[in-house]
Write the structure tokens for this entry.
Amino acid sequence: TESRKVVTGEFVQGGRLQTGENILAVEMHRYEADTEVNTFDVSAIMIMDNMYVITEGTGSSYPVKTGSEGVNSVFDNNSNTKFFYLNGVVGTWWQWTYNNDRRTIANNYGVVCGNDCNNRHPSGWKVYGSNDGSNWDELDSQTNQYFTVFSEQKRYDVSNVRAYNKYRILFNEFKNQAFQGDSQWCGANEFQFADF
């Protein structure tokens, strides 16, 4: 039998959840009748109002990449879109700059890998904050971060109490291996990631 991964999202409007117990129920039906027992697992990430702080600003990247798989796909809070760059990987970065010199404290972040070609996903990066674009404070550093499924999300806590106008993630390590079944066009020296 073939395993199949389904990623879906559900948005619950603010004010719809009540104080106390709220229940998230997941129901699964057989794909085909009279088959062996199906197994599944579910994870839920609850993002409270004002937790997603990547709003009211501009994303940029190095190398510059626009269009359907460009930098806008990084900051759209949609893991079904991705940033893809064909030539060169180490030294690629994404940056978010808030409008009107707004400064926000970020003490956690998440990254999401893409939906194919696992060898394109970074395994190491550094996260920085800046208020002038010239002086950068290192907030976090990760190495040996391996993805085991497509569209996997990893979340990291950061000991940061300073508000910054700019946040940057710089990718400096690429050691993820191709998954069995990755297509033949998953080339070396290519970069992709879905969200930051």
